[in-house]
Amino acid sequence: MLAAQLRDARTQTRRLTDDLSNEQLMGPMLPIVNPVLWEIGHVGWFHEYWTLRHAHGEAPILERADRLWNSSTVAHATRWDLDLPDRSGVFGYMGDVLGRQLDRLGGGIDGPARYFYELSIRHEDMHVEALAYTRQTLGYARPERRGSPLRGAGAWPGDVDVPGGRWQLGSTPADGFVFDNEKWGHEVAIAPFRIAKAPVTNDEFAAFVDADGYRTREFWTADGWAWRERAGAERPAYWLARDGGRWTWRRYDQVEPLAPHAPVMFANWYEADAWCRWAKRRLPTEAEWEAAAIGEPAAGGSSLAGGKRRWPWGEAEPDAARANLDFASDEPHDVAALAAGDSAFGCRQMIGNVWEWTASDFVPFAGFSADPYEDYSQPWFGTRKVLRGGGWATSARIARPGYRNFFTPDRNDVIAGFRTCAL
Q1: C-alpha distances in Å from residue 36, one per residue of 30, 130, 137, 141, 359
Q2: Taking the complete model, does pTM exceed 0.85, yes or no?
Q3: Could you give the percent of the chain with pLDDT greater than 90?
């Protein structure tokens, strides 16, 4: 199982990097991306550091690896100036690490070591997704297609009612591998609310743009307006102009028409919040999002039941009929697609397609303590917003309903959209 997951993650990494030129593997210095050559070396280093060295006590494969690829100590701006191995050296190092991991797994490992393999696999999953949106940021060619988006399903308007009640927010040991910021499940009170059946679409967001929403101060928080002015934002990232009445955008290195009924993508938290103010809506809290995604109504429907589903649709593992994950398509489906993935309350696409911003700040749950990878959550508390649900480039290993993603509210390069609640 772990060996198959290691190979799967590495296949995805190679699919997103093998075709890049040496120049593209470095790319320009930007605050929101890493040099791709550095990033994939860091992925290999993370695997080696936590599994081979930490769990198994092996000596470093490359003596200077920590000075090159430890993201906790190697400043972002210096990563373009390091004396990195060339592409064959980096890929060779990654292959060497993987080969040694597979050898270890072939001989059997104990429970504590398993944790570090699972951590390292999910860490690579995160970087696979980052590589996907880095290619978009830098205008590189579309990677080899894995599937096509479902078009023609159309819009999915309207709200559903979710009753109030007591909710266990967070994960439990029964959930298997979880990250430290999910620990542990604790009871919160949720008032009854109405939440959209689907995320906001390109068409719905275009109405805000056309109504001069980006130039209307009243729709923006002070921080959001300051970001908009700094960025000179007049519309979402990569949107270009109307062409014969339709918006176009840059998708990788091509100009394409926007799919009207796909969820808006590459929108940041400030933009999501401004759209809500214009539409007289609001973003859900992460507790509301989680209850709408995996909660169930109690008998009679007047309150939330005590338990949680494993996935919005039930216990079955995700598949292409329920969720757009793992590059089933390399862009979002229409929001009305994938009815088999509906939650108990009738919310569609809560898992996959696009990450969804929530109103919640990324803060620790009561009693938080950092896991061995101490810099995963702890340094970022109080500076980011929580996203839930996963996108089309997200691994199903990451896109569990309880997983708390987190980015600063200005980030409009990640595969994120949003779903709203009635006021």
Answers
A1: 12, 10, 12, 14, 32
A2: yes
A3: 96
